[in-house]
Hints:
Helix content of chain B: over 70%
Largest sheet of chain A: 2 strands, antiparallel
Radius of gyration of chain A: 30 Å
Order of helices and strands of chain A: HHEEHHHHHHHHHHHHHHHHHHHHHHHH
Helix content of chain A: over 70%
Shape of chain B: globular
Largest interface: A-B, 52 and 57 residues
Number of helices of chain B: 25
Distance between the termini of chain B: 40 Å
Number of strands of chain B: 2
Strand order of the largest sheet of chain B: 1-2
Low-confidence stretches of chain A: none
Distance between the termini of chain A: 104 Å
Radius of gyration of chain B: 23 Å
Structural class of chain B: mainly alpha
Strand order of the largest sheet of chain A: 1-2
Mean pLDDT of chain A: 90
Strand content of chain A: under 5%
Oligomer: heterodimer
Low-confidence stretches of chain B: 511-526
Order of helices and strands of chain B: HHHEEHHHHHHHHHHHHHHHHHHHHHH
Structural class of chain A: mainly alpha
Amino acid sequence: MSNEIILGILLLSPILGFLFNGFRFRSQNNTLAGTVATLAAGVSFLCASVLFFRLLDLPKESREIFVSYFSWIEIGSAKVSASFMFDELSAVMSLIVTGVGSLIHLFSIGYMAHDDRPSKFFAYLNLFLANMLLLVLGSNLLVMFVGWEGVGYCSYLLIGFWFKDEAKAAAGLKAFITNRIGDAGLLLGMFALFAIFGTFEFQEINARMLDVAGIPLALLTAGTLLLFVGATGKSAQLPLYVWLPDAMAGPTPVSALIHAATMVTAGVYMIVRLNPVFLATPATMHVIAIIGALTAVMAATIGLTQWDIKKILAYSTVSQLGYMFLAVGVGAFGAAIFHLMTHAFFKALMFLGSGSVIHAMHEEQDVRKMGGLKKQLPITHLTFAMGWLAIIGTPLFSGFFSKDEILWMSWHSPRGHFLLWLAGIIGAGFTAFYMTRLMALTFWGKSRVPKETHPHESPAVMTVPLIVLGTLSVIGGYIGVPHILGHALHIPNFWETWFERKLMVVPGLGEASAFEESLLMLISIAVAGAAATLAYIFYIKEPSKPQEVVSKIKGLYTLVYNKYFVDEIYQKFVINGLVNLSKAFWLYMDVGFIDKMTYKVSDFVESAAGGLRELQTGNMQRYALYIVVGFVALVSIVFF
Amino acid sequence: MFLSLLIGLPILSALVVLALPEGKIRIFSFASALLQFLFSLTAFFNFDKTTSALQFVEHHQWIPTFGISYFVGLDGISLWLVILTTFFLPVVVLASWNSISTRVRLFHISLFLLQSFMLGTFLVIDAILFYVFFEASLIPMYMLIGIWGGPRRIYATLKFFVYTMTGSLLMLVSIITLMFMTNAQLGAMSASILDFYKLQIPFVANEFFNTQTLMFLAFSFAFAIKVPMFPVHTWLPDAHVEAPTPGSVVLAAIMLKMGTYGFVRFVIPIFAEAAHYWSWACMLLGAIGIVYGALVAMVQPDYKKLVAYSSVSHMGYVMFGLFALNSYGTTGALYQMLNHGISTGALFLLVGFLYERTHSREIKKYGGLASAMPIYTIIFMIVTYSAIAVPGTNGFIGEFFILMGGFIKNKTLGAIAIFGVIFGACYMLWMFKNIFFGPAGELVKGTEEGKFNSVLKDLSPREMVVMVPLVVIILWMGIFPNSLLKWSQASLEHLTNNPFNYQLSVAGENSAPAVASLPTTETLEK
């Protein structure tokens, strides 16, 4: 089959799945809906794999499958096609999206078994997948934006899937609006790029960047900054991260797919896609690195204090996304995508694992009511543990390779800085702590499960995806083994070779010193190890300790536990402010001023008319008087 | 004859309605409206999309002394507006099948007359005739609101009428001035817009009181009220809230376009220098309209008023795009006119359907409607997406290119207008959440636990027939915009490529006949 057809199936398969389930949205046949949706996702994965192998067969210089289906919009010199590009980057992205996506679809069959609207759920899930594929496969900014907004409204629909609950519907609304703020920035960024390059095509823009002469750098910097604003919305970075923790209101598979593995990484993808443009604007890069590092640390601190298993994972996601942006900001684009991939594996795994736990606990999400679950949920526990080991950076697990690459680059890159590295290390310590805390509270120690709950292991349809993702979390890092280890283990760094052509290298990147790199690696292992041990002591050995520490730092704890009161600040100053302003506009401007003015005008006309009416009373003597006055006036004008 | 038939058939239908027995009026009106729509579609068979010239032209002298003539023509700018107009008539007739129960005959006569006058406005090339149609269309609309409207209908109609009349009078004065100028410059008085394009109208850049600027302001004022543009928009929410559903639909979907069409047809090409000089001010008002309309919509307790204010915001986009004066802004604006017609028309239909069931427009009395009326909810959702310009719907194409055109023209104003993207999502989705999501509200709850209010039946087949075409159009226009844009491209490019020497010819002729047959200035002097 030709590439056009395979790519077409890749994109259309989830759309067909959406239509199938969408048109029979009343059906309660969970198995049928789930099977069709999973098959649709599976077919996409198959197509992505076929295209991937075809890409491998191509010579390295021209690894690119470009397909244009039809001319979408033609206005003036803006000619936009519905065209797609399967290259090194989109291959990796679409494999992650469809691969992890298929597993999560499968898991959902078990998870949604008792829901009364499964068809609707799977329809949305498929629609999301289709939009995500548009996002990563689109060959121009506009097609990408279609997917970008598309995943946004699917996320909105799925967060508010149980819409009868006011809070869940509100969480969906919050996600949409916050994302829209980012999208407004993204739109302006796209306009700026179009103003400079006269095209929306990624390839043409990137090619133009080979020589920066004649490019207005001020506008370009503004443009990239605005694009990054879009990224902070979609990828939940400071200051727009607030929607992601609330997004946990959606069904857990949704959190795994959309709010951990795929959609939230879109911002990272977009920047990496335009890496030559971003590289040319160092100011933007610094901002990205700083925001990324700050988000990584701040979200991790909140993660230390939360009790809701999904909220902990949500803040962990925000934090890990911060690492990806840190990587992007220091010019380590490969490391960013690498971490994006390993994170997709282990975080999807842990979210699904938490779904399995919540399922077993009859919708309980508070870790204080768990504990000792490893006996009842052996598979969930084992696979979750793999994710835990991966995220805290245990040597030789996937997260270790990717996170270490980021930390190394934030030190080593000319765009890096000691403080960025330090933030990364501190964040890593926090990560190890809160994840170990989560493990300890959920699976280890004594059971705090209420008597009436009888946890049970989930069915195979749910555990199989866990096992697959668990395996990937362990081995997924070996395609990007750092050179210092690679030499010892005789594993080449496939990752670097694969992206060589696509990702530019930061100008002035020096030769790596093996000593420095190993030293930093040891430091990060030591910090993570120490933090994990500490958490283990706190939550298993001496369960009274956390309380003691908390009481010593009461003020700080309250601040962090309440998420730095960011939501409250936004509510008070931004939302209430806008609502009050709008009410004032309506009542004082529209009703109070403009309407009053028009009444004044009409009153004036009426009274003026009334004045003129006085002249025509029908009174003969009056008319005679007018005649005399008029005559005198005329005579005076003529004669004097 | 084609365009005359388009204008004349509705009047003919109105005459037939006058004679028909009461029971047959609806079915005849629907059939006639549908046929007129299909008839208007035949334009596509003969329309030459490669030319910017006026097509299907009919030109007959009417009052030769003043150069006033019956002059109609169609080009890429008016084409889609005409189709939009003819499309909505059958929709409106069908939608008001049950909701209008008194004076059915007069109602349909008003609709047909309105149809004729609106088509006339889009089709005539003679300024005096344009003025006549522009004004005449007020009368049937006045009746629609004044007879079948809500409790405050008299206040609303008066406000609507006085506002629009005031603006138009200034326009009439300017039209007459322009006619005198044709006499002076072209040698004979003419009311043809094509001759107005030829005029050299004195313009001084930094002054307010010069001929072109004043006339530019007079015309702009008239059309700005119609659009309506901030700050002369306050008649609209009142008119919409009091109007019956069909009145609201026609008002939003088509009548407001008469204002923006006026800007494209008159203001921008005739007063080119002034339009360029003052473009920033018009863009600023457009941008304020976008943001202001959205903010005020956000705090409306009445869903119909919310949709009305959303119109102010959406029409702000059109103005913003038009005065960017580049191809992106102009094309986006034309597209947005159609989008606004389709999606706001659809919104007014939807809120009308709900109002017919519950007789309440208070948002806070709803909640949880999604469970009671699932199909209604899905359609409302798609229309909402269109209104907030989600890609894949028509709204995106218009809004994106308007904002891009605006940004390229003026970065600061572009950055202001972009807030509409955020606030637009706020008011629409806030309303959506409060009506459809959450626990069942006061009006949605049934008498028994777990049941819904018995009046809340999902869409009837008739209502589906009304809504499904709109949904299909929303998606089609979002996915295949080229299929529409290609028909207007030549005209729009001609407009944006010739900012200061815009001329319009008649297809098949070298120049407009009104001038060709006239004596030149020199011969007059002899």
